[in-house]
């Protein structure tokens, strides 16, 4: 299993996404309809009018009977990827990766997985400077477009205002929305956007990124923290504050997960020091249910 650091050090998002995703393709089928798909399922007797190209001629030679090979094929859908590109995503973990670095790898891998399933994939990068949106498409050129948009994305400012995000919910389009965010917000702007998207598009998978040094509070001694979005600073002695911090963090995570699920989101917490497999497994599970 490739670690996020190994994938990041490839310095090639296309290659990293493919390497991270390929191990998860087998068995990732959204339905059990039978047809002319890629994965063999069963035989059935030939009937007049069937496509002769699907006949198993070797079986016919052995048995003097004609059978067609049926396969399990996917029911394609629309996958809409959302990247929170506010400044808090510049937080750097002890492994050297920022949350934005991890999000690029994760969304690249999910885009690759969805494309391999025949889905139409779109990407929206949410930043205060404006909405960067690639409409969902299922053509061969969409993946390079998504990779380029992710590679050139920068995390700046606050989470964008509702008027900036209005085009995302302007029309109804059935889709599986996958949002990658650290859920750092002034009020409830992220939750409000996802609530509107669930109403207009359907299923929402919320992947909550937290750096390992945030989760474990691995800091030592006197530390100065700076809010990446407001610029405010706080100086503390890490040791005496560790227990209280971790208690408050666990309570916040519990409430955050509870509220997200109450809103109907499929919520999952991700540690940016961990491989991408857990998030991809949840994506494929959610896709099968969509």
Automatic annotation (TrEMBL):
Transmembrane segments: none annotated. Pfam families: DUF58. InterPro entries: DUF58 (IPR002881), vWFA_dom_sf (IPR036465). Residues 42-248 form the DUF58 domain. This is DUF58 domain-containing protein. It comes from Hymenobacter cyanobacteriorum.
């Amino acid at each position: 299993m490739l670690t996020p650091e190994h994938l990041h050090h490839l310095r090639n998002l296309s290659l990293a996404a493919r390497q991270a995703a390929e191990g998860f393709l087998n068995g990732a089928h959204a339905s059990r309809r039978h047809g002319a798909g890629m994965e063999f399922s069963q035989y059935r007797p030939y009937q007049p009018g069937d496509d002769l190209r699907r006949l198993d001629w070797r079986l016919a030679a052995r048995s003097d009977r004609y059978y067609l090979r049926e396969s399990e094929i996917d029911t394609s859908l629309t996958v809409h990827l959302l990247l929170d590109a506010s400044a808090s995503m510049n937080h750097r973990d002890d492994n050297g990766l920022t949350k934005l670095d991890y999000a690029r790898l994760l969304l690249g891998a999910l885009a690759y997985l969805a494309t391999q399933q025949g889905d139409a994939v779109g990407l929206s990068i949410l930043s205060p400077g404006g909405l960067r949106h690639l409409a969902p498409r299922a053509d061969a050129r969409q993946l390079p477009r998504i990779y380029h948009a992710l590679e050139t994305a920068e995390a700046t400012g606050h989470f964008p205002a509702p008027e900036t995000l209005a085009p995302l919910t302007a029309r109804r389009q059935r889709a599986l929305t996958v949002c990658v965010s650290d859920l750092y917000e002034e009020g409830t702007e992220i939750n409000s956007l996802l609530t509107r998207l669930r109403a207009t598009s359907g299923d929402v998978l919320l992947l909550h990124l937290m750096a390992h040094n945030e989760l474990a509070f691995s800091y030592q001694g006197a530390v100065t923290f700076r809010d990446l979005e407001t610029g405010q600073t706080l100086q503390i002695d890490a040791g005496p504050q560790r227990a209280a911090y971790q208690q408050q963090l666990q309570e916040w995570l519990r409430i955050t997960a509870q509220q997200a699920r109450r809103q109907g989101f499929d919520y999952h917490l991700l540690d940016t020091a961990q491989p991408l497999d857990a998030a991809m497994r949840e994506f494929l599970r959610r896709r099968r249910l969509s």
